[in-house]
Amino acid sequence: MTARYDVAVVGGGIVGLAHAWMAAQRGLRVVLLERSAAAEGASVRNFGMIWPIGQPAGTLLALALRSRGFWLQLHALGVLEVEECGSFHLAHHSDELSVLEEFCDQQTHDSRMLAPQEVVQRTPLANPAGLLGGMFSPTELRVDPRTASRQIAAWLSSSQGVDCQFETLVTRIENGQVRAADGRTWTAQRIIVCSGSDLQTLYPDILGRSELQLCKLQMLAAAAPKSCGAGSPHIASGLTLRHYTAFRGCSSQATLQARISAQSPELDRYGIHVMASAMPGGDIILGDSHEYGDDMTPFDNPQIDELILRELRKVIRLDDWTVRQRWHGIYAKHPTLPVFEAEAADGVQICVGTGGAGMTLAFGLADRAWQRWIGETA
To answer: What would the pLDDT profile of 75-97 be if each residue is shown by its tens digit?
Structure first.
């Protein structure tokens, strides 16, 4: 027997959950199909950062701030804990300070510069040795990435009428029908494929031509200092200023990039830019690196972990640098687009490739998509 729905969402990561929620909000009957017992891809293997400060001014920043509002709505509803922690970008080199000052002068984001003593007063994580200043942004949020997707799925199921079918591997979509490996089928007027880093099971031809590439990142966890209280800001080093597109409009970025390329080419080789997020449970998540395509292997590179820790020691202070846990994540990323969206067939939409910004953009992207599909005005 084939179950019938208005919407079928394939993929239970944050992007799939976002599309399911936005559909349910519009009164549609939704089934969510996820191959694993719970989301276990990039949606759980990250810093738990909702990071508007990394998005360039304009459409993407607006989408990130819209997503931020949805995260706070989930918190208000008691679905999960969301900390309004903000973030610090620390400058330990003069070229980093120049980029941050130029960025703040553009007045495109809600950010401001603080003197070294002000930074240290606000966050005990900041290493005062050589600190020249820091940029504070209040817009960033923190969630626990290892539980957030599971909590949202449970709420969608219990309170929003979404039929969540886990341990369900979808192998085929044809003529409005979704088929699982165990023979079960569902029909829906609209099917949304949010397959994360899996670019081969469904629509491999379309995804193979999409220019999407896979990215592997290595991350670590240590013990957060006892001085880190609730709402401790996220920390990013000056290395981050060469990674996020928000800073590409700063002319001073070229000087920073040239210094790093000349002095530390190994950081460019492995795409290392370091960040830290102190979780409420007592861990601090540290990272990360970026290896693409053929450079990726199933095996983690211990040199990358050591480089991450080397750079972090320059910018933050921990009571104990013992690594409690190591892992890697893999996500799909498009070289120019913030997300890859395509119509695979009549009524079938693909939405993948949010890169490292899925937690930041997913709700805004899904809300925008549904506005477009059903002709709503923003």
So the answer is: 999 999 999 999 999 999 999 99
User: What pTM was estimated for this model as a whole?
Assistant: 0.96
∠ at Cα 251 (247, 256), nearest 5°?
Answer: 75
Structural domain containing residue 112: 87-138+213-333
Q: What is the dihedral of CA 47, 53, 58, 59, to 10 degrees?
A: 10
Percent of the chain's residues with pLDDT above 70 = 99
Residue 124 shares a structural domain with residue 165 = no
* Whether the Cβ atoms of residue 124 and residue 225 lie closer than 8 Å to each other: yes
Distances in Å between the Cα of 138 and the Cα atoms of 50, 83, 130, 202, 359 are 11, 11, 24, 40, 17
Is residue 103 a part of any domain in this protein? yes
Calpha distance 90→342 (Å, rounded)? 39
Same domain, 125 and 191: no
Q: How far apart are CA 310 and CA 295, in angstroms?
A: 22
The reply to whether 179 and 234 lie within a common domain is no
Q: Looking at the domain assignment, is residue 64 inside a domain?
A: no
What ranges in 2-140 are assigned the alpha helix state H? 14-25, 59-76, 94-106, 116-122
Q: What is the pLDDT of residue 375?
A: 86
Q: CA nearest 271: which of 294, 290, 243? A: 290
Do residues 32 and 12 make contact, with C-beta atoms less than 8 angstroms apart?
yes
